[in-house]
Each structure stands twice: as C-alpha cells, then as structure tokens.
Amino acid sequence: MAALKVLFVFLLTVAAAHSQSFHLGSCPKPSTQKDFSVAKYMGTWYEIEKLPAAFERGKCVQATYTLLENGTVNVHNQDLLSNGKISSIEGVAKVKDPSQPAILAVSFFKGVSDAPYWVLSTDYQSYSLVYSCSDVLGIFHIDFAWILARTRVLTEDIIGQLHDQLAAAGVDVNRLTVTNQTGCDVTTQ
C-alpha cells in the first residue's frame, strides 16, 4: 500500500508539473453526439481551447482526419513550436462499437493502449467538442477536452455553449486554456 501511495504522489507531482488534468475517482461518462457520421467529420480541425496536455507544447494546433479504405481514420496532428519548427504525429482512429460511432479509439504508438476520443457535440461545419478520459489503477483518472473549429477562430457564443456542455459533463472549464492560432501561415496544408 505504501508503494501505491508513493506512485500516486509521484503521478500527481508529474501531472502538476505538466498541468495535466488528474482527478480522483473514475472517468465521467458524458453523452456523445447522436447519429454521429465519421465521414462528415473528416478534414482539418483547429484547436481553439483545451484542457492542458503535456504532449501539446506549441501554437497553431490542428488535426486533419482522413477516412481510409478499411474504415479507419488517419489522424495527422501538428503544431508550431517556439523554435519555428512544425511538430507532427500520425495515428489511426477507429470506431470500436458501430452502435456508438462518436466513441473512437486513437493510437499513435504500437504497443501503447488506444486513447479514447469521444465526440460530444459537432455540427461538422464549424465546431466540435471532444473529450477523452482514462482511468488509472481504479483510483484516479486523467482527462482531456478540446474545442475544435473548422477555422482558427470560433464565436464566443459557441464557445460559451460548449463550456456549458463540458461543465454539465463534470469537466472544470476554468482549467481550459486558449490555443494561440495567430501567425500560423507556415502550418497551412
């Protein structure tokens, strides 16, 4: 039990250092987009706001999704680092249960568990609200949330509505950070 406490303290320290969003207890189970269409979701999405994520360090964060012949989705994430270089990563997303198409699993590395990608809400043309949560040892969970848009800006009205939806799902919207989407011409695909 002492080792478990040490591990827990260590993970919380790491989380605090990276501003990760760790919480006691299991993941919440928010409702997802009804009648979600993976095909309509394809294309480029720009990150407007997010819960802090240690793996995102730059600005101009964007994700491009492409439907593959086998029904999976190619995921291409990129951001612009402070040194002016573009950082990118490729992954694959798949719907695990056809009866719940808005719940996807994303993999970026072989041998590493898939990450959940839940589309809570989208109109496909302007905004998307995404949530991800993983339980750790049955003691706490790590969650992520992203407000995405088809353009590098989104109206405050829509952002407010998406904040309300996250708050209703139990997400602390005060922890959301705004993503810098200025000076991004170099990342345009």
Account of the 3D structure:
There is one protein chain. By secondary structure, the protein is α+β, with helices and mostly antiparallel strands. The protein has a single domain (2-187), classed as Beta Barrel (Lipocalin), CATH 2.40.128.20. It is built from three helices and ten strands. The chain has helices at residues 2-17, 38-41, 156-168; strands at residues 22-24, 43-50, 59-67, 73-80, 86-95, 103-107, 115-122, 127-136, 140-149, 177-178. The chain has an eight-stranded antiparallel β-barrel. A hairpin with a 3-residue loop joins strand 8 (127-136) and strand 9. The protein is globular, with a radius of gyration of 17 Å.
Quick synopsis:
InterPro entries: ApoD_vertbrte, ApolipopD, Calycin, Lipocalin_ApoD, Lipocalin_CS, Lipocln_cytosolic_FA-bd_dom. By secondary structure, the chain is an alpha+beta fold.
